[in-house]
């Protein structure tokens, strides 16, 4: 898919951190020019941290427009992770300095109109399964969302020592679950996610993708 479609600017949109037990969900939106030089551009999950960190400033420098937005744990707990992901994506699109005629959303769902605010009714959307690996603008959005969120979790690691946020970025790995059993949740944990609180109440599963 080209970065312009029938004269319209195309924004790629993707999220990071949907399946985490702690921290916000992040969404990136990127409009790339028709010609750019971003060697190795692909799904952020397929790149090393060093490669993502090298690509992120290059994406920002070459993009026609880009934005990253967050939705925080309290809101995730209140409206659920799927709705929070839609909200983060809509916020990222709303903060682009150029209006895209088309938004390509990674996954199998588009953003509900209720989240789009002034963009509702004006923005055409397409969902693209596997778009983070096949649509360059979505790949770029995934990298910006991932790197921004990772840097934030590095800061939280210093604010909340003992959980290992800098290493696992809030995902439910064994060392994180062990820390939760020892320390209990901190202020950035998603309290409605399974594994955060020591009870058997049915809780959200932060499954990847849309």
Question: How would you explain this protein's 3D organization?
Answer:
The chain has 210 residues and is of the alpha/beta class. It has one domain (4-183): Ribonuclease H-like superfamily/Ribonuclease H (Nucleotidyltransferase, domain 5, 2-Layer Sandwich), CATH 3.30.420.10. The chain contains 7 helices and 6 strands; from the N terminus they run βββαβααββαααα. The protein has helices at 49-62, 73-79, 81-94, 131-134, 136-159, 165-168, 174-183; strands spanning 4-5, 8-16, 25-31, 65-71, 102-106, 124-128. Strands 1, 2, 3, 4, 5 and 6 form a 6-stranded mixed beta sheet that branches. Strand 1 and strand 2 form a beta hairpin. The longest helix is centred in the last third of the chain and has 24 residues, at 136-159. The protein is globular and about 50 Å long. The mean pLDDT is 93. InterPro entries: RNase_HII, RNase_HII/HIII, RNase_HII/HIII_dom, RNaseH-like_sf, RNaseH_sf. One of its GO terms (molecular function) is RNA binding. One of its GO terms (cellular component) is cytoplasm. One of its GO terms (biological process) is DNA replication, removal of RNA primer. Keywords: Cytoplasm, Endonuclease, Hydrolase, Manganese, Metal-binding, Nuclease.
Low-confidence stretches: none
Secondary-structure-derived class: alpha/beta
Summarize the amount of helix as a percent range: 25-40%
Give the name of the CATH architecture. Answer: 2-Layer Sandwich
> How confident overall, as mean pLDDT?
93
Task: Please report the distance between the alpha carbons of the first and last residues.
Answer: 20 Å
Using DSSP, what is the number of strands?
6
- What general form does the structure show? globular
The radius of gyration computed from the alpha-carbon positions, rounded to a whole number of angstroms, is 17 Å
CATH topology: Nucleotidyltransferase, domain 5
Beta strand %: 15-25%
Number of helices: 7
Task: Tell me the count of domains.
Answer: 1
* The CATH class: Alpha Beta
Cofactor: Mg(2+); Mn(2+)
Protein name: Ribonuclease HII
Pfam families: RNase_HII (PF01351)
Function: Endonuclease that specifically degrades the RNA of RNA-DNA hybrids.
């Amino acid at each position: 898919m080209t970065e312009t479609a029938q004269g319209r600017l195309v924004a790629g949109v993707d999220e990071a951190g949907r399946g985490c037990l702690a921290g916000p969900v992040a969404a990136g939106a990127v409009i790339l020019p028709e010609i750019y030089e971003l060697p190795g551009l692909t799904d952020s999950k397929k790149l090393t941290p060093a490669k993502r960190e090298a690509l992120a400033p290059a994406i920002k420098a070459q993009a026609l427009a880009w934005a990253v937005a967050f939705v925080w744990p309290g809101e995730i707990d209140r409206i659920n992770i799927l709705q929070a992901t839609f909200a983060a994506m809509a916020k990222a699109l709303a903060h682009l300095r150029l209006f895209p005629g088309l938004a390509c959303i990674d996954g199998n769902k588009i953003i509900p109109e209720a989240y789009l605010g002034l963009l509702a009714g004006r923005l055409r959307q397409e969902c693209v399964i596997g778009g983070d690996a096949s649509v360059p603008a979505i790949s770029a959005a995934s990298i910006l969302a991932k790197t921004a969120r990772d840097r934030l979790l590095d800061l939280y690691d210093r604010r909340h020592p003992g959980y290992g946020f800098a290493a696992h970025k809030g995902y439910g790995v064994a060392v994180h679950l062990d820390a939760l059993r020892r320390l209990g949740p901190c202020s950035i944990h998603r309290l409605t996610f399974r594994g955060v609180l020591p009870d058997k109440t049915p809780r959200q599963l932060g499954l990847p993708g849309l």
